[in-house]
Specification:
Distance between the termini: 30 Å
CATH class of the largest domain: Mainly Alpha
Structural class: mainly alpha
CATH topology of the largest domain: Fumarase C, Chain A, domain 2
CATH superfamily of the largest domain: Fumarase/aspartase (Central domain)
Mean pLDDT: 94
Strand content: 5-15%
CATH architecture of the largest domain: Up-down Bundle
Low-confidence stretches: 1-9
Order of helices and strands: HHHHHHHEEHEHEHHEEEHHEHHHHHHH
Bound molecules: arginine
Radius of gyration: 31 Å
Helix content: 55-70%
Number of helices: 20
Largest sheet: 2 strands, antiparallel
């Protein structure tokens, strides 16, 4: 069943007719893709079922033959599902493995399945079906992580921490506002997958190797049965293009980069220097040498894995760059990076959701850091602006005040009315009266700001958005399952 020598396996090749010599075993090993493209088995069978029914409709095969093919494909699907399928590298890829097995199971009628079909339009179909499915799964992962972040945001409207620019304390913000910032980013990521999926709406079957077929194939039918809007419009483009995979991988790379930023914050925040959070034991590991350590390996690995997603995208861009129309065997190199991006993003989303759901937020520590009165220096400048002082001048005045208190090592809030007036006569009270953390937060009530009203409105709005997205996703998931 698993021929090793070149001579024996010649008979197994579907192109055997033109060849008098068997494939060199090294070439066989080099060109085989079955060890990774078996991931597409389910999609390949789905495409073949549609193909078989269509051939029957087109009267290219009899209805008995259709039934035999479908029954055989069911058997193959069963063998794959319970791990009994004899994957054979000598049969190169998933398409030939399945077809050959079908022949063993149902005899020569198996040879009719490939009527008017090439592996070129077949693999394009498999990939389109695969991408449609994984795109939904990825959107589900992004939705779940956003759900967790939203939940944590709801619990932390009253938790205040310093917001940072240049990793320097900048202005106080609510932790809810901070978590919702990540929800926004990840929401755009989800929309990228959604948009890209809508472009995978045409069915490659019938494009053949490059220029279609002389046979009366019913392309509309296979398209409809597989849940596409229509057949693809140009047979050459169909077998040559891989931009759907590129789009997925580009969106995945962006998403992984976003996760790496979130991950980096968890790493930073769980250091003794910040001590803003503590990861749950279930989401950290210890050191084999230093007993006191609790390491943030989960976010570190997510941060590290973002490199793969970027690399995978660059790999496929490089494979496709400069390829002449149409199909070239280089394109077989699309799969490993694609599958890796899919798995990497799926796992990263899952562990990040778990890590954040179980994160211990150190509210007091954050609060202490946010109580640094220097974070309110901008407020002081804006008080002068309200009194009619041009902003540039106000900035300069407050800059001198900050320099003064830093040199003297005194608290900004210790400055009396007279002290402030010595810097600018427009100040109407002492700093301890003018500067108040809660008031400062509350006065940032512009759209998109960190004031309680804004944050609470955002929580409601995003909650509704996520619910609507969940509903739509469930609808598409049910549709995808129905279309097997
Ligand atoms: N395993 C091949 C791939 O992934 C399938 C298409 C092969 N086509 C061909 N003309 N050799 O690209």
């Amino acid at each position: 069943m698993s021929p090793k020598s070149g001579k024996e396996n010649k008979a197994h090749k579907p192109w055997g007719g033109r060849f008098s010599e068997a494939t060199d075993p090294t070439v066989e090993r080099f060109s085989a893709s079955i060890h990774f493209d078996q991931v597409l088995a389910h999609h390949d069978i789905r495409g073949s079922r549609a193909q078989a029914r269509m051939l029957g409709q087109a009267e290219l095969i009899s209805s008995d033959e259709v039934q035999e093919l479908l029954a055989g494909l069911d058997q193959v699907a069963g063998e794959i599902a319970d791990g009994r399928f004899p994957f054979d590298p000598a049969l190169e890829d998933i398409h030939m493995n399945i077809e050959t097995r079908l022949r063993v199971l149902i005899g020569p009628v198996a040879g009719k399945l490939h009527t008017g079909r090439s592996r070129n339009d077949q693999v394009a179909t498999d990939l389109a079906l695969f991408l449609r499915d994984v795109s939904l799964a990825t959107q589900r992962g992004l939705l779940d992580l956003r759900g967790v972040l939203l939940e944590r945001a709801r619990e932390n409207v009253d938790t205040v921490l310093p917001g940072y620019t240049h990793l320097q304390r900048a202005q106080p913000v609510r932790l809810a506002h901070h978590w919702l910032a990540h929800v926004e980013t990840l929401g755009r990521d989800a929309s990228r997958f959604r948009d890209a999926r809508a472009r995978i709406n045409r069915c490659p079957l019938g494009a053949g190797a490059i220029a279609g077929s002389t046979l009366p194939l019913l392309r509309e039918q296979t398209a409809r049965e597989l849940g596409f809007d229509a057949p693809t419009r140009n047979s050459m483009d169909t077998v040559a293009s891989r931009d759907a995979a590129l789009e997925y991988m580009a969106a995945a790379a962006i998403s992984m980069v976003h996760l790496s930023r979130l991950a980096e914050e968890l790493v930073l925040w769980s250091s003794a220097e910040f001590a803003f959070v503590e990861l749950a034991d279930a989401y950290s590991t210890g050191s084999s040498l230093m007993p006191q350590k609790k390491n943030p390996d989960v976010p570190e690995i997510v941060r590290g894995k973002s490199g793969r997603a970027i690399g995978n995208l660059v790999t496929l861009l490089t494979v496709v760059k400069g390829l002449p129309l149409t199909y070239n065997r280089d394109l077989q190199e699309d799969k490993e990076p694609l599958f890796d991006s899919v798995d990497t993003l799926r796992d990263s989303l899952e562990v990040m959701a778990g890590a954040i759901a179980t994160l211990d937020v150190k509210r007091e520590r954050m609060g202490e850091a946010a109580a640094d009165p220097m974070l309110l220096a901008t407020d002081l400048a804006e008080i002068l602006v309200r009194a009619g002082v041009p902003f540039r001048d106000a900035h300069e005045v407050v800059g001198r005040i900050v320099g003064h208190v830093t040199r003297k090592q005194i608290d900004l809030r210790a400055l009396t009315h007279a002290d402030l007036q010595s810097f600018h006569e427009a100040f109407e009270a002492g700093a301890d009266e003018l500067l108040d953390l809660e008031r400062s937060l509350e006065s940032r009530s512009l759209a998109g700001g960190t004031a309680r009203v804004r944050v609470e409105a955002a929580l409601v709005e995003i909650g509704a958005e996520l619910a609507a997205e969940r509903g739509e996703l469930e609808r598409l998931e049910a549709q995808a399952e129905g279309g097997a």
